[in-house]
């Protein structure tokens, strides 16, 4: 629901900004929005997002679900507050950023880290532009890396979206890989190394003319690759994105 007295802001967003006062009656010392959110994050980190419910969070704090509703009106608002809470991350200060490329690297790496530290983070659907304080703080920070670049505001925001999209995709990919390994699949099997011989037979040049030589070289599964030949896919992709941004910026000078 939206509260007209708060300029139409969704109630969860208003809560994140502290625009709604916490109840003055009830278990004030033992209960707070912060404690509720922290408990919910702990449950999600351990058992996944589906395990989070108002009943379970309340039980973890020793209260009834009705007590929680005095602080947070529903699960949707709780998820929004959880999402914002884990976005409170330490980033380099303006004085520590050596150049805009390093700042953007920091932003992407730390964003990927959120998905790894809190695997449930990517399970929350995107419902609109970020409006909560910690989310906006991260956007403000990455915009700061572009202060000296000859870019219009809409160009800066497009680059923020590009970097955020790469971080989200890679963060969720890494999360799913971690989950697969934790379920019992060996890293070698996940990468396909045990199946390289079979693939070399199945992937024929007439059916897969461009994939076949890649499989035969071992690059498809990293089979038999020298250490210097193995590419860090995340870093390689990130650097190519930054190369593209740099070329675009240079054309505008």
UniProtKB/TrEMBL annotation:
Matching Pfam families: TetR_C_1, TetR_N
Gene Ontology biological-process annotations: negative regulation of DNA-templated transcription
Gene Ontology terms for molecular function: DNA binding
Taxonomic superkingdom: Bacteria
Residue span(s) of domain HTH tetR-type: 30-90
The keyword Transcription regulation is assigned to this record: yes
DNA-binding annotation, residue ranges on this chain: 53-72
Keyword DNA-binding: yes
InterPro entries: Homeodomain-like_sf (IPR009057), HTH_TetR (IPR001647), Repressor_TetR_C (IPR004111), Tet_transcr_reg_TetR-rel_C_sf (IPR036271)
Keywords: DNA-binding, Transcription, Transcription regulation
Protein name (record): TetR/AcrR family transcriptional regulator
Biological source species: Cohnella endophytica
């Amino acid at each position: 629901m939206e509260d007209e007295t708060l300029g139409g802001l969704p109630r969860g967003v208003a809560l994140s900004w502290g625009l709604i006062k916490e109840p003055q009656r009830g278990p004030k010392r033992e209960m707070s929005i912060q404690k509720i959110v922290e408990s919910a994050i702990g449950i999600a980190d351990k058992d996944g997002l589906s395990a989070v419910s108002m009943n379970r969070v309340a039980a973890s704090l020793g209260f009834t679900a009705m007590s929680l509703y005095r602080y947070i009106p529903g699960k949707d608002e709780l998820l929004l507050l959880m999402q914002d809470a884990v976005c409170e991350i330490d980033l380099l200060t303006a004085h520590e950023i050596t150049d805009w490329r390093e700042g953007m690297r920091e932003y992407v790496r730390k964003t990927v880290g959120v998905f790894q530290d809190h695997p449930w983070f990517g399970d929350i659907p995107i419902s609109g532009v970020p409006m909560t304080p910690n989310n906006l703080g991260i956007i403000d920070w990455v915009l700061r890396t572009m202060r000296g670049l000859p870019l219009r505001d809409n160009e800066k925001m497009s680059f923020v979206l590009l970097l955020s999209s790469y971080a989200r995709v890679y963060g969720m990919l890494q999360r799913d890989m971690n989950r697969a390994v934790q379920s019992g699949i060996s890293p070698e099997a996940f990468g396909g190394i045990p199946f390289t011989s079979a693939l070399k037979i199945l992937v024929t040049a007439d059916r897969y003319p461009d994939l076949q030589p890649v499989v035969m070289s071992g690059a498809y599964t990293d089979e038999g690759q020298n250490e210097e030949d193995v590419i860090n896919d995340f870093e390689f992709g990130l650097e190519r994105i930054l190369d593209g941004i740099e070329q675009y910026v240079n054309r505008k000078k």
